[in-house]
Specification:
The complex is a heterodimer of chains A (about 140) and B (about 475).
Chain A (H helix, E strand, L loop, with lengths): L2 H14 L5 E4 L8 E7 L5 E7 L9 E4 L20 E5 L2 E4 L13 H21 L12
Antiparallel strand pairs in A: 1-2, 2-3, 3-4, 4-6, 5-6
Chain B lengths: L2 H17 L5 E6 L4 E6 L9 E4 L14 E5 H10 L5 E9 L3 E5 L11 E7 L2 H5 L6 E6 L4 E6 L5 E9 L22 E5 L3 H12 L4 E5 L23 H12 L4 E5 L7 H10 L2 E4 L4 H14 L2 E7 L5 E7 L6 H6 L11 H6 L9 H7 L5 H19 L10 H4 L4 E5 L25 E3 L36
Parallel strand pairs in B: 4-6, 4-10, 7-8, 11-12, 11-14, 12-13, 14-15
Antiparallel strand pairs in B: 1-2, 1-3, 5-6, 5-7, 8-9, 9-10, 15-16, 16-17, 17-18
Classes of the chains: A alpha+beta (about 140), B alpha/beta (about 475).
């Protein structure tokens, strides 16, 4: 990610959040930058999202919740699942499937990705309450 | 019947045909029906223009004498030079199919056979007549030509017919009048992706006389490639860069080929360097990440790029041309041109995310829907034509007129009226609606806020979250 893009993303996030909610790491090292950003659901639960920016913005960022979430049955959300909108976990973190490759364009902001992940978290908590899979609420994109 | 007699007969048949104007046909375009129709030559009096003759020059029988020796004109010049001071010059000949020999002074990269025979060049005919202990070829060099003898152990010798592999200047002499010989020999084309598109395009450009290539692809030839690729069974497992280098040199032994078996998404520094060196870049990859990366490089280096792709089962496809200052590939995608692209390889589609990780192996296999080679040929063909127009821009040539035709940056083609093209009309009487097997040019506009080429960053912010979601959150960001 070039400097101008990073500044634009940072400035957009700064308009939306207070400074202690997000932080870019390794911003000077090409291919290793990542973003940590907090997300608070309507239920008041707080999650930390880790966005891997190594190929951003030409490719969608990998987004992880920085812990292993479990489904209603107590099973780890660690593997690819169409019904739960998850991909293969890394570092013991649940990975959210937010944008398909064919629907990604480089002008999509990290904030927009965040919004989609925030929606996923809301639906995850709804799943815990109702037992319905996440794709009952969130449609699939190409 | 001798070959000479056959040739004379062929000439007669051809001349007779050309003189029989009344029995020959012209094609006339009818603006009312939108179709071409046949009319007897000379009879047309209607509104449409005569577009072409149904037949033109006929055939002529070739002399098909076998046992040929092919000798490079440039090699022969070198040999003559050496024979000024030496009695003999040694070389070797590839024996191909037991009846054709290709003589080389040095081992070529592109060759067909490992079956080599020693060759001696000499000016002294007595050498050709002298006994030898092994299979050997002797070529007697005279001032105006050369004569080859195949010597065998029992001293029976045959005189072989010599033909010449043209020099660098003449190797594409058949294109004279279309593209002047040498017009493209100093041009450098970077081909990214050597699959069914890139392989054919690279070879076509070599045939048109492009003299310098850079080839990028990290893949190897696999079985599923064969039905649409220029590679053959004997190439299985080989790096595609090596296979296509060989094919290019097989068409033009004087071409220069640099090979980079790398993933361009992982080596952007190399990508930018090579884009900077190229006169034109062919983007024949199968994923948007590489297209976006290349698009950025083209914008930064101010180079022309030609992109092409097929959509599912090659039911159609499109071609995009980037010219510095014009709309870029990202501008095009921003206009809603995201398509379900053709998937030809599960592994690569999984690797770049076109098949989601959660799709089962059975479902992934079902998603592989490969079109026919003949379905992608027209798309490759337009990419080649656009490339030649761009490479020869400013050079007076037989294809200059195409500069007035190929003015669009985006072109669409449908092979079949399926899915994406399901609402297109049948070819007969399409009226004012699009139909199949025709190119449609589309004018695309530069996006003011394109993240790749606009020079400034305007982000897609999506929707705002409710104010409650913006409450202060305390997390550990150390």
């Amino acid at each position: 990610m070039d400097k101008e893009r990073l500044q634009a993303e940072e400035s957009l996030l700064a308009r939306k959040f207070t400074p202690n909610v997000f932080r870019f790491f390794n911003r000077e090292t090409p291919g290793t930058a990542y973003l940590r950003i907090g997300a608070k659901t309507n239920q008041g639960n707080v999650y930390t999202l880790h966005m891997d920016l190594s190929d951003f913005p030409v490719q969608q960022p990998k987004v992880f919740v920085t812990r292993m979430l479990k489904n209603k049955m107590g099973v780890d959300l660690d593997s690819p699942s169409a019904s739960m909108h998850t991909l293969t976990s890394e570092n013991g973190w649940t990975r959210i499937c937010h944008y398909g490759t064919n629907s990604w364009t480089p002008n999509v902001s990290l904030y927009k990705v965040y919004v989609k992940c925030r929606l996923w978290l809301e639906m995850y908590e709804t799943h815990l309450r109702t037992g319905k899979n996440i794709d009952y609420y969130l449609n699939h994109q190409h | 019947m001798t070959n000479a007699e056959l040739n004379r007969m062929a000439e007669d048949v051809r001349d007779e045909g050309l003189n029989q104007g009344s029995s020959m046909k012209d094609l006339v375009f009818d603006p009312v029906t939108g179709d071409f129709r046949q009319v007897p030559r000379g009879s047309h009096r209607g509104d449409g223009d005569v577009v072409t003759e149904m037949t033109n020059k006929g055939f002529a029988a070739e002399d098909t004498t076998l046992e040929m020796v092919y000798l490079g004109e440039e090699d022969l010049i070198n040999v003559r030079q050496k024979l000024l001071t030496e009695d003999k010059v040694k070389a070797f000949a590839e024996m191909i199919d037991n009846e054709v020999y290709h003589v080389h002074l040095t081992l070529k990269k592109a060759r067909y056979s490992t079956d080599l025979i020693p060759v001696v060049f000499t000016k002294d005919e007595r050498v050709a007549m002298s006994p030898v202990d092994e299979d050997m070829m002797c070529i007697v060099v005279r001032d105006e030509d050369a004569d080859a003898f195949n010597l065998v152990k029992d001293q029976k010798r045959r005189r072989l017919k010599v033909d010449y592999i043209p020099s660098r200047e003449n190797i594409f002499s058949r294109t004279k009048g279309i593209l002047e010989v040498g017009a493209l020999k100093n041009k450098r084309v970077l081909v990214i992706g050597l699959g069914s598109f890139g392989s054919q395009i690279a070879i076509e450009l070599a045939k048109a006389g492009v003299g310098n290539f850079a080839l990028m692809d990290f893949d190897r030839v696999e079985l599923h490639n064969l039905s649409r690729h220029t590679a053959t069974v004997r190439d299985l497992g080989r790096l595609k860069t090596n296979v296509i280098e060989e094919a290019i040199l097989g068409k033009n032994p004087y071409a220069s080929v640099d090979k980079f078996p790398v993933d361009i998404n992982k080596d952007l520094e190399l990508l930018y360097e090579e884009v900077g060196k190229a006169d034109l870049v062919i983007c024949a990859t199968d994923n948007n990440t590489s297209r976006f990366n290349l698009s950025k490089a083209l914008v930064e280096k101010e180079k022309v790029g030609i992109f092409g792709r097929a959509i599912t089962r090659a039911e159609g496809g499109d071609v995009f041309r980037y010219r510095p200052g014009g709309p870029c590939y990202c501008c095009l995608i921003g206009e809603g041109n995201l398509q379900q692209e053709e998937i030809t390889n599960v592994d690569s589609a999984r690797r770049d995310g076109r098949i989601a990780a959660y799709v089962s192996p059975e479902d992934a296999d079902a998603m592989v829907q490969v079109g026919l080679s003949s379905d992608i040929e027209p798309i490759c063909n337009l990419m080649v034509k656009l490339s030649l127009v761009e490479l020869s821009r400013g050079i007076e040539s037989g294809i200059s007129s195409l500069e007035q035709e190929l003015v669009y940056d985006f072109y669409m083609w449908a092979n079949r009226r399926e899915r994406h093209y399901g609402n297109w009309k049948p070819m007969p009487e399409p009226g004012n609606l699009p139909t199949i097997l025709r190119w449609y040019g589309v004018k695309t506009a530069k996006e003011d806020n394109c993240p790749i080429c606009s020079g400034h960053v305007v982000l897609d912010e999506g929707e705002d979250l409710p104010a409650t979601a913006m409450e202060d959150i305390s997390i550990d960001l150390s």
